[in-house]
UniProtKB/TrEMBL annotation, chains A, B:
Its EC number is 2.1.1.-. One of its GO terms (molecular function) is methyltransferase activity. Pfam families: MTTB (PF06253). GO terms for biological process: methanogenesis; methylation. Keywords: Methyltransferase, Transferase. It comes from the Bacteria. This is Methyltransferase. Transmembrane segments: none annotated. Residues 1-21 are annotated as: Disordered. Belongs to the trimethylamine methyltransferase family.
Length: 514, 514
């Protein structure tokens, strides 16, 4: 059944056109951001060179550990590294040289080709929160996430105009056995949305399932020739590459599927407390990880990732939207561009337990910094709450709304004759009013970005309507989007084949909850 | 009495030292920000040149109105402008040439010289919200502001570590007659705080009262030789300079006191809907206003101001923290630097009725943009709510807390040997933990900025403590700061003289409430 569907799709030829036709009744999604603004750069060239030199010193002198992975050690040995137990010491310059075969940018295909995204260069692709075991909403409070919650988040992502990507583990469906939930999650992304998505990384076999299911959805040949998943490979900072994550990376790289190679750092715990020290370690880890991806398959698409937060030294809690995290992210962006690699960082990060002012300050700090630091792929762009423990329904739509402001800002400033508006200034003159002038009438519909979630009403109206705060307004938006949701069309044969794959695969294993 | 106090102070000589001594028991205030980071620039040189050319065209062809102000028209005529009724047309290049005598930066003195601020260059001075007729707090809701509210805000400003300036009309004390409230407001800033402050601009005579009261506080000679006030002169955009604001400007300029010359623009209403058009008008207005200040007194200290927001074309409401406002502010900063003038813009702007997530997203967007756009004087840096109709106690302390993050970010990245932390990376090695290492122990106290207001506790602790949101936490902070408040010492003779001035002045006029 699976194979039959795969063959049928591969045979088709005009698959892309057919897919587009099938999704004709679909919600609007903005094209990924193409920046027409400069990047903000916080480090001088001299500072960057010091950090690059030190990162090579770390790789050469200290090295990195590849744990439980003799095949990886062998690849490294062949490439010229010095192997000592599980420690890999990489001669100065070697990792950087190996990284040079990774593409500067790549296209991730969606089943609806209008939603393909370009990752790298001046682009910014926005994807939702990843990983929380809990969800929160106004009605139900904080609770363990279920598969039903997961599906709701995928639907919200599909309905969110400014979100280009369906993401991956938008929450952990804790009601499904741990060894089977990736199947349900992938099926949800594939059938409830037509935006690009991420594959499973929690076991190499689950990465393989992800590839297999993509072959059903896109056709086998298409998958081998194109990138249809971008998946998240975290490094066990400091300087450790475990066999599970590397196993998943190997599956993806061999199948030409993309991976974000991402140090996961709470500053002061997994890296030095200083910005320069953290950047040194981040660069060393990324160089080693991306070099390894290219040892597995030259040209495999990868992203320079950097998940970085600071820590509250009073409580030990990670802190978000902080100035130190911004310094590190801006610096990491500069390092990624000097390597010629796509860059992943930032997100709707916050430590607050509620989608309140704290959450919004921290998130806005991080989103703005993400745009200006040259991030190409922003995971967690909406919905993150409580340090990543919670996916919040209300915050998902609040954040997703704010992403519209990033789109508008990234367009830069138009200074053509119409935008110069000299005739409008002449028409109105001193003491006049622009609301009725010809230039305003011609442009008012597109001139200003506006929130689809928040309140712009006069005080009296707002008060009469119940004096609702942002969370209450967002809850209304969640409800509206879920009510308006219509599933994008999918070839019934593919739908059936995906379902059969999931059912068969689940039946082949006992449940595991650890 | 007043004169006696003034003379006594002027005679003293070591007045600054004495003032410092008297305030020895005082709360910590951070030094104004000196940026060690670049500015973000959104406009190309070509775009800037187009806008500059067009602004000169506006001044030459359309001109500006100076209303009810024959003396101003005469000054302009003498300077070479073309006068037609109240319309002043300024030949290309003249306004820019006149602006060249304005200083690039200036020192505003505080009665505690440790709190003097430098305005211009790479500095950023933060001042609180200005102008709202209402206040809001958790306990009392939204209500008309009173003088008691005003005093509380001055106390909060004094207690706020990251706020360098006491501001001006932190709220409108609507329980005091409109023609007398400036006296109470000035007295509050002068006696309840020792940070620099702003003068009254609502009548030229009130500007003169401000100067007179400063002469009591600082000594007559000191005031004539130094700048002790920075006051807000709004332009009636488009292109109109009214006699009240210009009258106040004239008083301040003649007395060597600083003025922010600031277009007040809701885009699409008081300026074109386009960014380039708005920037053209802003520049024309600022050129005319600052040129005029220099006609009144060459070398008078002034600031290039730009209060700009966009508009919600559905409701007509001004909107805040929007991408268009950011474009304009970044562009205005570039124009100000090309003119060599200090720049005022941005603030804790938001449209929300409550200090909730909407308020915080909008505010954080604006604060971050203010830092990166090179703002030198940020009015409204904390406490603004509901489009400027409301001064919020809780938002004041939330915003003031976030200003700490701006301070830290503006320091830039240290890459000295200690910050490089190579020894720490060596000590910890792959798979280790940095919390206990020597480098972390040496630096953890200063490594990371932390909020003094928000929540970093474990979920369970936070939940047990009442699951408080940001507003509730901020209310606790307001209470704590007001409880901890201690009035900074002031020479009793000066205190008495100020009080006598206010009492006598009030007795000399009937009450006016319009």
């Amino acid at each position: 059944m699976v194979e039959a569907a795969g063959r049928r799709r591969a045979r088709g030829g005009g698959g892309a056109a057919r897919r587009a036709e099938r999704t004709a009744v679909s919600v609007e999604t903005a094209r990924y951001i193409e920046r027409n603004i400069p990047n903000f750069e916080v480090l001088t060239t001299e500072a960057l060179e010091i950090i690059e030199h030190n990162a090579e010193t770390v790789l050469e002198e200290i090295g990195v550990n590849f744990v439980n992975n003799p095949a990886a050690l062998e690849l490294w040995r062949e490439a010229g590294a010095d192997i000592d137990g599980e420690r890999v010491r990489i001669p100065r310059g070697l990792a950087r040289q190996l990284c040079s075969t990774a593409p500067k940018s790549y296209t991730q295909h969606a089943r609806n080709p209008e939603r393909n995204v370009e990752i790298g260069g001046k682009s910014l692709v926005l994807a939702p929160v990843y990983g929380p075991p809990f969800v929160r909403d106004v009605a139900g409070g904080r609770r363990y996430a279920t598969m039903e919650d997961f599906r709701k988040f995928v639907k919200l992502g599909y309905m969110s105009k400014w979100l280009h990507h369906s993401g991956g583990t938008v929450c952990e469906p804790t009601d499904i056995p741990v060894n089977k939930r990736h199947l349900d999650m992938l099926q949800a992304h594939m059938t409830l949305s037509d935006k690009p998505f991420m594959g499973s990384v929690t076991e190499p076999s689950r990465a393989q399932d992800s590839v297999d299911m993509c072959e059903i959805l896109f056709g086998k040949e298409f998958v081998q020739q194109n990138t249809v998943m971008t998946s998240l490979i975290n490094i066990n900072s400091p300087l450790t590459f475990d066999d599970v994550m590397m196993g998943a990376l190997e599956v993806y790289a061999r199948n030409n599927q993309a991976a974000i190679i991402s140090p996961f750092i709470v500053g002061g715990a997994m890296a030095p407390v200083s910005v320069a020290g953290t950047l040194t370690q981040v660069l060393a880890e990324v160089l080693a990880g991306i070099a390894y991806s290219q040892l597995v398959r030259k040209g495999a698409p990868v992203i320079f990732g950097a998940f970085v937060t600071s820590i509250d030294m009073n409580s030990g809690a990670p802190t978000f939207g902080t100035p130190e995290a911004s310094h590190i992210t801006y610096g990491a962006g500069q390092l990624a561009r000097r390597l010629g690699l796509p860059f992943r960082s930032a997100g709707s990060f916050c430590g607050s337990k509620l989608p309140d002012a704290q959450a919004a300050y921290e998130t806005a700090n991080s989103l703005n910094m993400g745009l200006l630091s040259g991030v190409n792929f922003m995971l967690h762009a909406c919905g993150w709450l409580e340090g990543g423990l919670v996916s919040s329904f209300e915050k998902f739509v609040m954040d997703a709304d704010q992403l519209g402001a990033l789109h508008k800002f990234a367009q830069g400033v138009n200074v053509d004759e119409e935008a110069q508006a000299l005739d409008a200034i002449r028409e109105v003159g001193p003491g006049g009013h622009y609301l009725g002038c010809a230039h305003t009438q011609a442009h008012f519909k597109t001139a200003f970005w506006r929130s689809e979630t928040f309140d712009y009403k006069p005080f009296e109206t707002w008060d009469e309507e119940g004096a609702r705060d942002s969370e209450a307004l967002a809850a209304l938006r969640v409800e509206k989007l879920l009510n308006d949701y219509q599933q994008p069309a999918l070839d019934p044969a593919i739908n059936e084949a995906l379902n059969a794959y999931v059912v068969e695969k689940k039946a082949s294993m006992p449940d595991a909850f650890m």
